[in-house]
Every structure is written in structure tokens, then in C-alpha cells.
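Propose amino acids for all 95 sites.
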């Protein structure tokens, strides 16, 4: 995962866009990512900020206004909003 992330970071840097790692602060640190996106049950935002530094972009997932407020209070730079669980897959009828 770290090798892939390092390659993606280089690709993004060459293109002039930010590279954000989903959920994994350790991978973000190892590959020099621009930041990390953390879900409600992932690594906590204040500790991620301490480890990644003030220049890192740190986002948090929120599916409610209360979760968004929590992310912002903890120091998130942005909020990712969307469905918090996957819908049940529809089964195709047997043929």
C-alpha cells in the first residue's frame, strides 16, 4: 500500500493536485501525502493533526450536522458528506 501511495503522491504532485489518503494516517505519513480523510470511527482528528502537522489537509466524514460540527470542532479542514452505510445489494433473479 505504501509503494502505491508513494507513486500516487508523485503523480498528483506532478499534476499540481493534492493527494489525500483515506483512513490511514500511517500511510499518509509514510508516503508524504498532503493529507488524510478520516471517518467517524477512524483515527481521531486532533491526534492526526499532531502527527501530520499544521500544513496537512485533514478531512472528516459526516452524515449528520452533529458529526460535521464534531469534525470542525476537532480541527478538520473540510467535511466529506454522504451515505454512512452501503445499501443492501439487490439480488438478481435466477435464470
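Proposal:
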Amino acid at each position: 500500500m505504501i509503494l502505491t501511495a508513494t507513486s500516487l503522491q508523485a503523480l498528483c504532485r506532478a499534476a499540481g493536485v493534492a493527494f489525500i489518503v483515506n483512513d490511514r494516517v500511517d500511510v499518509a505519513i509514510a508516503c508524504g501525502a498532503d493529507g488524510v480523510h478520516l471517518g467517524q470511527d477512524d483515527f481521531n482528528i486532533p491526534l492526526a493533526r499532531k502527527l501530520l502537522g499544521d500544513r496537512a489537509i485533514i478531512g472528516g466524514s459526516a452524515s449528520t450536522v452533529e458529526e460535521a460540527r464534531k469534525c470542525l470542532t476537532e480541527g478538520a479542514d473540510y467535511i466529506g458528506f454522504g451515505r454512512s452505510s452501503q445499501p443492501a445489494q439487490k439480488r438478481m433473479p435466477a435464470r
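The chain has four helices and four strands. The mean pLDDT is 91.
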